[in-house]
Amino acid sequence: MNVLFLCTGNSCRSVLSEGTFNHLAPDGLKAISAGSQPAGKLHPRAVALLHRKGISTEGYYSKSWDALPVTPDIVVTVCGSAAGETCPAYLGPVLRTHWGLDDPGHVDGTDDEIEAAFERTYAIILARTQAFLALPLDELKADRNRFKAELDRIGTLLP
């Protein structure tokens, strides 16, 4: 099963989600990330945070949704609403859900405040990823409506 974490720039939230998911997921589950308008580089604070958590970013780069190496089964948009962002809409026969996250890369403040925003975002991603991985996936694959409801519920979780 392939999970696509999608946002606009593919430099921060979607990359944090991809790294966290792949770090925790068992064999047979894989995350990728992409953006509708990729920034062209990963946010250095996102990369540093993943490394501090012991999560590899080897092979990660900011990429377009037009160049996906696999076809996703599930698409999770991670755009936030605070900045009035418009989330890209992935078309195709996939399960879609929205796990909105405000972009810590756009936080203004002291280094400590910015770092705290990145840690909050990571904590939300971690909680949602753990909830996803706890789902009875084999059961849910046979019931798309229930699967979608569970994915949507996970998108509301906060640590």
What is this entry, summarized?
The protein has 159 residues and is α/β, with parallel strands linked by helices.
Keywords:
5 helices, 159 residues, alpha/beta, 4-stranded parallel β-sheet
Task: Please provide a written account of the structure.
The protein is of the alpha/beta class and 159 residues long. It is 38% helix and 13% strand. It has five helices and four strands; from the N terminus they run βαβαββααα. The chain has helices at 13-24, 44-52, 111-133, 137-141, 144-154; strands at 2-7, 30-35, 74-77, 95-98. The chain has a four-stranded parallel β-sheet, covered by helices on one side. Strand 1 (2-7), helix 1 and strand 2 (30-35) form a beta-alpha-beta unit. Helix 1 (13-24) packs parallel to helix 2 (44-52) and helix 1 packs across helix 3. The longest helix has 23 residues, at 111-133. It is globular and about 50 Å long. The relative contact order is 0.19. The model has no long low-confidence stretch (mean pLDDT 93).
Task: Describe the secondary structure blueprint for this structure.
Blueprint: E1 2-7, H1 13-24, E2 30-35, H2 44-52, E3 74-77, E4 95-98, H3 111-133, H4 137-141, H5 144-154
Helix pairs in contact: 1-2, 1-3
Shape: globular
Mean pLDDT: 93
Helical coverage, percent range:
25-40%
Which regions have little confidence, pLDDT < 50, spanning 5+ residues? none
Largest sheet: 4 strands, parallel
- Kindly provide the radius of gyration, computed on alpha-carbon positions and rounded to a whole number of angstroms: 15 Å
User: What structural class do you assign from the helix and strand content?
Assistant: alpha/beta
Number of helical runs?
5
Distance between the termini: 25 Å
Element-by-element helix/strand order: EHEHEEHHH
Strand percentage = 5-15%
Number of strands: 4
What order do the strands of the largest sheet run in, or round the barrel if closed? 2-1-3-4
